[in-house]
Structures
1.
Amino acid sequence: MTGPVGDDAVGRAFAAVDRRLFLPWAQRGHAAEDRPLPIGHGQTCSQPSTVAAMLRLLDVPPGTSVLDVGAGSGWTTVLLARLTGPAGTVLGVERVPELAAWGAANVARAAVPWARLLPAARGVLGAPRDDGWPRVLVSASPDVLPPALVDQVAPGGRMVIPVAGTMLVVDRAADGSVQLTEHGTYRFVPLVED
């Protein structure tokens, strides 16, 4: 498999987290393939090389708090938990209730109690909190950058999000100003707002 391999924190996280455990039984034989795999309800478990690229762009420091939007099966939530370590916290949110329940069970089995996956609140994009999130990973693609998610990035924080096929890094400075950079083209399932 290309992409995830590496002797950095992301490569080590991939080595520690078995993708098969986050796939439906019928897809587990394909876990090592570098492609998105269906997990039901029109959603996918993203291509490993794409996830690795996103995690490297996100640059997750140990001990930080991360919001994982579109957490699906919980695979990215657990990868993020490996990056934050037990001093951090990871919250995955998933809008499809059946996937959220399955993903929550997968996260619980992964023995990373500092991570959890919850159903997304109806009508709420992400998981707003007063002080924002130092890191936000979004694994579904909106047509335009959602201000509601940008607002959830803490000062000094970063979000990685595919928008209309282009991977964006959204950096919020300490003064609240926002800078966007583009990092290649990718295909994702659409980000649906209820």
2.
Amino acid sequence: MTKIAWDETGKRLYETGVKNVVLYKPGENGNYSKGVGWNGCTAVNESPSGAEATPFYANGIKYLNLMSNEDFGGTIEAYTYPDEFAECDGSTVLADGVTIDQQSRKVFGLAYRTEIGNDLVGTEYGYKIHLVYGALASPSEKSHSTVNESPEAVTFSWTFTTTPVNVTGAKPTSHLVVDSTKVDPTKLAALEAKLYGSETEEPSMPLPDEVKALIGATA
């Protein structure tokens, strides 16, 4: 028998930061291609909703709980955004250097990385790659104020909701997470080459079934 132990050396894990943010536009075949780096992204806040219990009663007692479907959404915060995101934010080019707002918003995919740290090596312990599918951004407030003795850069913020994509053998999902501490390094490198691009292929975001095939099915 094994006795439970708490706070063992090397197992005091934590998660922090966001980096390597990539925007993907969906292609005609449903895949996410044409990935571009998102500079200046300061936060991706995940805000799942739903999964609420509705109780049912019989004979004066609680008979069962039925859970509603879960929805994945959140907010993106950044100092700037890639030109390719303009369509996702309801803008379109009217002429060279001229854009107009209040246009149809385009769906997008998003990839970002968070760091995993522990008590021995800090944030060099590992990381998680998050893939978000079927995201749709909502209009957001943009505040512009005069420059003064304490200047601040304008921070943009977008709330987004998602539409799940199909997953073989599981319910549809909008959010997939790859943990570098639990994935074979060679397979992880192959996934990153697809996500971030290489000398032989353009950056693209694989769907969950493709990730499963690339990383390997659960034993």
